[in-house]
Amino acid sequence: MTDEARDPGLQALFRSAPDLPEDAAFIDSLRLRMKRQGRLRMANRLIVGGLLVAAAFSLQNALFPMSSALLSPLLDIQGLAGKVVAPINSPAGLLSVVLLGVRALHRRVTRG
Q1: What's the pLDDT tens digit per position in 60-95?
Q2: What is the C-alpha to C-alpha distance for residues 53 and 32, in angstroms, rounded to an integer?
Q3: What phi, psi does 82 have (nearest 5°)?
Q4: Alpha carbon of 110 to those of 26, 42, 81, 82, 107: distances in Å?
């Protein structure tokens, strides 16, 4: 490529760009900064993970009564009819059916 074929605006842009120091001290400072950021990121992840585990253990005792309440039968139906409606004869079953209906409606509306 000849000098006449080069873009003069691009050449001026490269000439006006600041030169980066290429010495070892600059590169070492970048490496140290990246290592420090990596250690900080890892420490943050460990702290957040520990907090989530602590929250899970503390919430576990509160969630047991709620799970038993969600699984309690709504109606006392005996015989074949009770076996047929057993999957939705609880607050959890009704909640799942309602959420599936909302999801189906949302898909129908958004896909148009």
Answers
A1: 888 888 888 888 888 888 888 888 888 888 888 889
A2: 31
A3: -65, -35
A4: 53, 40, 37, 37, 5
What's the rounded Cα separation, in Å, for the pair 88 and 97? 8
Sign of the Cα torsion 22, 24, 25, 30 reads positive
Name the pTM for this structure: 0.41
Query: CA dist 70 to 16, 24, 63, 78, 99, Å?
Result: 69, 64, 10, 20, 15
SS (H, E, C) 14-34: HHHCCCCCCCHHHHHHHHHHH
From 43, 63, 67, select the one nearest 55 (Cα to Cα). Answer: 63
